[in-house]
Amino acid sequence: MQTFKLTIFRQSRVLFGLFLLPFAFTGLLLLGLELGSFIWGLLLFVFYLLVYYYFTVGQLTISIDNERLHFSWTKKIVFNYKEVADVNLADIKTIVIDNGQFLRKLITDGKTVYLNTTKVKPQDNFKLIGFLQAFSKNNNVRVINSWREWADKGYLKTAYRINIAVIAIAFVNVAIFIARKGFSSGQLFIFLLFIPQLILYGQQMKLEIKNNDE
Length: 214
Hints:
The chain is α+β, with helices and mostly antiparallel strands. It has helices at 11-34, 38-56, 125-139, 146-153, 156-181, 185-213; strands at 2-9, 57-65, 68-73, 87-88, 92-98, 102-108, 112-114, 142-144.
């Protein structure tokens, strides 16, 4: 029997935490000032980040025995993930891996197992990816990235256009803000925090669209 210990995150939980991040930062700093010290606000925000990490990340053990995958979550005090039913290796039709480093999904005819491994405490993440890549070559299993999956579903071109629109709107908003209120390092920081990633996504989607059309 082979066993792989994985560090997993859920994208829905990550997005929820990121949405709350600016509100938590502002609110906790103001609370700290009400308590009489800016340091209290920073400490409360650090506590929020620790809770956010605990909420987002889980430890999953995958055991492979008799050509069958068994999934077992390490129990937490709160914020546990739902149990995952066993999967036969022979039932896997598609494996979604991004950049050769992040295992996203295992897809069978009947269901999708969402994994989303991360570089944070990777443990056996890369070992499992190597095992699945070798398995796919020997068993004619399709290995794709997330953009290819979106292309297969017909979402990619729409997502690419939306991405371009968001980048354009962000540039326009920053330009208007600077023209009206002058340069603000805080606003520029927020801009630089998200826009480079959107540009990178756009380049990846454009390349996948080109490959898909050929």
